[in-house]
Amino acid sequence: xxxxxxxxxxxxxxxxxxxxxxxxxxxxxxxxxxxxxxxxxxxxxxxxxxxxxxxxxxxxxxxxxxxxxxxxxxxxxxxxxxxxxxxxxxxxxxxxxxxxxxxxxxxxxxxxxxxxxxxxxxxxxxxxxxxxxxxxxxxxxxxxxxxxxxxxxxxxxxxxxxxxxxxxxxxxxxxxxxxxxxxxxxxxxxxxxxxxxxxxxxxxxxxxxxxxxxxxxxxxxxxxxxxxxxxxxxxxxxxxxxxxxxxxxxxxxxxxxxxxxxxxxxxxxxxxxxxxxxxxxxxxxxxxxxxxxxxxxxxxxxxxxxxxxxxxxxxxxxxxxxxxxxxxxxxxxxxxxxxxxxxxxxxxxxx
Length: 351
Fold this sequence. Notes:
With 351 residues, this protein is of the alpha/beta class. The protein has 14 helices and eleven strands.
């Protein structure tokens, strides 16, 4: 088992087991345990968790529908209502068992209920293991805008069981792998070079890769929890990526978060090249690797228009300035707060 210390909690990474969470639940006793899950984590992960942790056999279970389209205030209201009905209070523990939607929404629910109750994350997807469950960001989508409402509220622990990933499809593994590519591109050139050597998708979620990705993100978060400067680097690919995701959801088109972020990194790398922040060779290197993993996305003029509209509402903007985190050579970044719409349009037309 590997333990990574964050600001106020620990991240425990096990290849296959529940030793860390069993110790946590034995050490700190709560009056009530509430597991928030979706139909997938309920079916594939819940039985293993309950078998390993007898303490949770009496836990209340709140199951929500999976998918980004359900990461809304309406779902939160339903969960808050269920928490109220079962008598949850300040001495209750919320256990988020699931992917990124569960981590984001469950954390936000916990941060607001009774003005904040304890919660832990048990991520069950690669996306939630390396990104959503780590760092204390919680949130929901509002009026179609990604993570428009949320809070910074840290869990009491993150408990990763890598064996959960064996039940995921290749597409959903690649969904999380985009965040691993992102952290390498803005934080560690050596890690990036190691990723480029990976040939098989099952290597995308080796314990070594997962630990390195979490360590890189955690090191940034510990220095800037509230995202005043350094943590903004983690937004690379997300201005365009989130806008694309919102555009697809509005049009009832299918796209996963990581697929949108992969596309976002392609476009934002084009912007970085046009702004003379990365070389032509580096741009080609980034595009070649991302294209080798993700299917090419061709956008209609209507989708491009929607995408640009959503970018104007991005939570990272400052006044009229569109603030991007762009690569400044591979493994480094620059916070660039004056991207013009025309620059985004030009980059979109090149992909």
